[in-house]
Every structure is written in structure tokens, then in C-alpha cells.
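re the bet — no i am not wrong, look at it urself. input seq straight from the record:
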Amino acid sequence: MLDVSALSRAEPTPFRAVRDLLKPGEELQPLDFKPGEGWAYSNVGYIVLAMIIEKASGRGYCDFISQEMFGPPGMMSTACEDPDVIVKERASGYTRDNETLTNASYVDLSVLNGAGSFYSTVDDLLAWNNALNSDRFLESDAREKLLTPVKNEYAYGWWVQAKSNHKVEWHGGNVSGFVSQITRYPDDQLFIAILSNTWSNPNRSQVRAMATELAAIVLGETCDLPRKHHEIKS
């Protein structure tokens, strides 16, 4: 799997072909399994999908999704990351090391394309979720295929599982300084989006746990509430 964590604007040449994504690792490591025999998550797969979109549409990936996906639902605060553009009230990313926060290392997200190159807000993500529940993007048979697991409970860009007898569709993401998760309970008409501008391995787990606990509150199930703080007077 491609490690994109260290990519920066110092990269001399953009990816021009699928083979460029895999050098030199393909000469150094054997396949984990033969195609079709197993499954493993890979950011490279989403970068390749973005390249396919560009090839099929004849348009840049960001132009395509901005016009075809972000525009129709009115997602005015969602766009591809452009390091040269100043975005009002855009959050800064931080990295946590135990109790210490530092500014996250810079990564030019534009090189990630389909693997995580855009920013959004919870309101815009809700608008996107509502559009996904309609025929605006995909007709019902295509949506069913999108959300049907293929292998290891993974569908087309969604984990699809059952939690406490509720169907749940979710996916998380993280880049330098940021962690996110969107969770859908389609039968309960429940949508949860959590965006964090602090990254660490524990933070990734905490964001997922927050989504689970918020769902439990809404669905009337047992959950662990945050610790209650009491004032101590000196």
C-alpha cells in the first residue's frame, strides 16, 4: 500500500500513470495475494479511481466532483484543497503526542485526489447524505450496489455492518492533522459526522468511539457518557 503521509509540494513530478504509483515497491515486495483471492484497504485504489474519472470524463477530478457532486446539493463550503487559496475559518491541523500538541506536518493534499483531497463541514456532509438517499446522484439499484458488501464487510467505499441489530454504513479518514468519520444508520434515518483537527492513533479510535456513543444516545441504547466534572473550590 502506498504511504502518502510524507508527500509534499516538493514532489517533482505528479503521477501520470498507474505504474508510477507503485514504483519502486512492486520490485521489492511480492503480492499479498492474487487478485480476487483476498482484500485489503488501499489508498492507491482511490487515487486510481480518481484517475479513471479524469480519463472517462475528460475533466480534472476536482472539477468533476465539484460540479457533479458538491454543486447540486448546495455544498458551498466543500471543495478540493488548494494550498494557494486562503479559506476563511479553515481549521488548522494538529498532532498529539501524549499531552503535547504540535502543528501537523505539511502535506499537499492535492496529490491525494480520490484518497482524501477535499475539505467540508458537518452541514455540507448532511446535505450530501440527504442527496445520497435520493436519486440525485444514483438511482436506487446503483445505490443498492454501492452499499452491498463485496468482501470483508466492505462495499464500494463503505463499511457495511450490523451493530446492536441496526444496519450501519460508515467510513473514516485521516490525513496529517485531521481525523474524520461519517456514519449512517439507514433504517433509523440517522446520520453522524465527526470532524477532528487533532491527529494521533488514539484520536482515530476516539473519533470512531464518539460516533458509536452518539448513535447509542439517539437510539436509546446503553452508552458511556462523558465523565462529569465537579467544581472544586479552594
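see?? The radius of gyration is 19 Å. told u. also The helical segments are 18-22, 25-28, 43-57, 61-70, 122-132, 140-146, 201-219. so pay up
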